[in-house]
Q: What sequence folds into this?
């Protein structure tokens, strides 16, 4: 083998690894998610409060507010202590 073949093989390997990790990242983004109420930490909610107190992410004032939510993978909310799929 000459150096050109080795370099070409190494470059092809690096490019293939990049493509695989990009495909894996796209897969992660397309997984189904659901809103999980009652588990968000103060300042870490994903969007508006269910009671209309605010309309932006990151504005929750207390931990575990039953009207605040975050996205979790579908099916996980019921496994989390204090988590609910409906606003309380």
A:
């Amino acid at each position: 083998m000459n150096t050109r073949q080795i370099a070409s093989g190494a470059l092809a390997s690096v490019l293939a690894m990049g493509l695989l990790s990009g495909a894996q990242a796209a897969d992660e983004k397309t997984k189904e998610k659901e809103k999980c109420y009652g588990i968000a930490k103060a300042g870490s909610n994903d969007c508006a409060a269910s009671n209309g107190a605010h309309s932006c992410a990151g504005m929750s004032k207390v931990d575990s507010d039953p009207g605040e939510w975050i996205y979790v993978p579908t099916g996980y909310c019921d496994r989390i202590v204090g988590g609910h799929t409906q606003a309380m």
Notes: The chain has a mean pLDDT of 80. The longest helix spans residues 3-30. Strands lie at 33-37, 69-73.
